[in-house]
Automatic annotation (TrEMBL):
Superkingdom as given in the UniProt entry: Eukaryota
Phylogenetic classification of the source organism: Eukaryota, Haptista, Haptophyta, Prymnesiophyceae, Isochrysidales
Residues covered by the Disease resistance R13L4/SHOC-2-like LRR domain: 143-271
Cellular component annotations (GO), alphabetically ordered: cytoplasm
Coiled-coil intervals: none
Signal peptide as annotated in the record: none
Protein name: Disease resistance R13L4/SHOC-2-like LRR domain-containing protein
The keyword Endoplasmic reticulum appears for this protein: no
Amino acid sequence: VPAVRAMADEGEAEVDLEEQGLTEVPAEVLNNGVIESLVLDNNELTELPEALGGLSTLRELHARRNKLQKLPAAIGKLESLEGLFVSGNELVELPGTISSCGALAGIDANENKLSMLPDGLCDCICLEGLYFDSNRLAELPDRIGSLAALEEMSLNHNALNLLPPSIGDLAELKMLRLAHNNIAMLPSSIGGLTKLKGLFLDFNRLQRLPEEIGGLVSLEELNLEDNALLKLPKSLSTGKLVSLKGLYLQNNKLASLGFKPKLLPSLRKMSIAGNQMSCEVNEDLKRDMAEANITETQRQDE
């Protein structure tokens, strides 16, 4: 590829080889000693070479929408790597050596075939964002709470049944997306996420919530639609959820809300259709919502 040779000769810090029909990474790229950003999106790559580990200055690796089934173990040698973007591949696992990527701040691995995450991922303490939507994850590492800098984690459309108790140690977490999984219960430690602003649990198998959920004092959006909730915890109405603006409860098994919605002072949107409320309870609730200036909405699928 002439463009590759030109970039290699000029010592380019950014090498963009998107949509070049590549089946392998050109040798010229692997010999570039100053490269900081490598873009390989939309090619035909089935693997990345171990020699990639020699790119000591690499900060961003983009390999979206290829045919990668695994990443090289040598990725652990990329001590400067901050962003790993590998969505839309066929990855079944991440290498354990990723634990040595001490500068790693974000991973986008949406739309792969990952069934588990390596425990070593929890050693990447600079991680701020994890995106693993549309994989096959059945569990998270027990030490996930070690990621003290993590602010956003998205795990929609997986096969998660439980969350590890350490998840409550993610003190900086602001957004947690868990829609379309098989989660039947939440750990009581969830209440430790005091900076969490968005919690999306729609399309799971929740029958109840821990009382500790009332400890989410920064929460603004709580989506619980399409679960099997029979009742809501009393802690929702004790006055701690002062920031909650949206509460989405459509398609559960609630016979009543259990409290007056005006007890949530910031609440402005709520969905309640598709529950097991009598006509009288439903009418009373809608009247209470109107008095509190709360708008009834329909499904808020994330």
